Amino acid sequence: PNSFTSKYVSRLSSGESSTKEICRKSIKSVSEMLNDESNVDETKFGMEELVCLTDDKLTCPDVSAEIVRIIFCDDGSDALMTKMLNLIEHSTLKGVSLQQYDSEGTKRHSLYLRNMALKALVNILSTVFQNETDPSISDKGHECGR
């Protein structure tokens, strides 16, 4: 995992903060990184971070389950899900057609972000499936009505 994830996961092991609090801060940070599509490095890092946070092999199952719960159940995460779906459908965060881009580098960057969004979605669906088949992975008290 990269240094961003390591910083928060090491806080978990030291007992500095709760899993829920760290996961919320992590999702908020990812969402903020995806706010400015013109900042290529920040958006790339944000999507890579989302992939890491949703992958239970790079974090741990309870962290990835909490991240997924936040994405689906917390009110403030709708924007993050919308950005992911825009990347998957349109290869941009804003839902603008990829054909409107003028440079090859911008097209490559957008396609890279789309691939990262697809990886995050696969991780999310995998976590949802694992939680359905193995309830010990997540706390059932966190289910939402969506």
Keywords summarizing the entry:
6 helices, globular, disordered C terminus
SSE layout and pairing:
Layout: H1 3-14, H2 19-33, H3 40-54, H4 61-73, H5 78-90, H6 104-133
What does this structure look like?
The protein is mostly helical and 146 residues long. It is built from six helices and no strands. The chain has helices spanning 3-14, 19-33, 40-54, 61-73, 78-90, 104-133. The two termini are 30 Å apart. The model is unreliable at 137-146 (pLDDT under 50).
Main sheet characteristics = none
* Average pLDDT level: 77
Give me the secondary-structure category: mainly alpha
Q: Quickly count the helices.
A: 6
What's this, in brief?
With 146 residues, this protein is mostly helical.
